Amino acid sequence: MKSKVSIDRLTILGDEVKERFEQLINNNNFGFIEGTGFAKFPYDKTYYMIDGSVLQYSKNQKTRALRYEFNPNNINPNETEKTHRRAVEGCISTMKYPDLSRIDISIDLYDVDLSEYEIRHESVKTVCYKSGAGKLETYYIGAPDSNLRFRIYDKAKEQKIEGKNWWRVEVQMRGEVCGWIKQVNPFEQVKFVKPMLNSVEDIRTKAMLFYLQQNPNEWGKISKNIRSKYKKILNTLPSEKEINVADLYEKSADKIIKELNEWLYFAKRNNVIS
């Protein structure tokens, strides 16, 4: 099984470096700014970039003046990469005293079909989407407004690629959870296993476990005591196979932290500017 770990989205907040911000919006180096528009409170204006990233500005004294959201994976891996990267760096360089308010980290899994695995986790809030044939396509763990949320989905289907197994396990961290990234492996909360249900002797228990495995949305409809009972049984069953995404992330954790620090550097170097 091949895998790839990467930062899929970053949001950086910072105080304004007035001169550099004005230079960015007035000169529009590299033609990076595609357009402007209004923004939701507390921001006053949004600058839309040609790569889909956005820079927002606020006059509100109670919030950070600038917010930049971008996807490092969108930086073109060809002869224009250096120009594209400099344009992104230019947006970050309009800030000082930066903070991360959102980090999305993805693990791409190739040559494996996650729809054949049971997804184990601690959260009660889940949403599951299946195809007409009953095959798993997308699975959310955690509430939409949660500071920690997982999205597991068939990336090949999203990209309309046929005849290929390509799944993505994505964690979205917001707010104070972003500060945990150097100490905590967020993927420790999710496991993919193929439990040996045939090892369960009681036919009713086996049928219930099979039903819950095929219909994960139903976990939230049973009582807490019953849910705990079946979770405990599942967690003690031997597994035919297991995919440990926490281990996959751990192998790339230093690289991810280094990349985060490299992006923040372009704002942190401005901290000395009054």
List keywords for this structure.
elongated, three-stranded antiparallel beta sheet, TATA-Binding Protein, 33% strand, ten-stranded antiparallel beta sheet, 274 residues, single chain, alpha+beta, 27% helix
What secondary-structure arrangement, pairings included, does this model have?
Blueprint: E1 2-16, H1 18-27, E2 33-38, E3 45-49, E4 54-57, E5 66-70, H2 81-92, E6 95-110, E7 118-120, E8 126-130, E9 136-141, E10 148-154, H3 155-158, E11 166-174, E12 191-195, H4 203-214, H5 224-236, E13 239-243, H6 245-268
Antiparallel strand pairs: 1-5, 1-6, 2-3, 3-4, 4-5, 6-11, 7-12, 8-9, 9-10, 10-11, 12-13
How would you summarize what this structure contains?
The protein is built from six helices and 13 strands. By secondary structure, it is of the alpha+beta class.
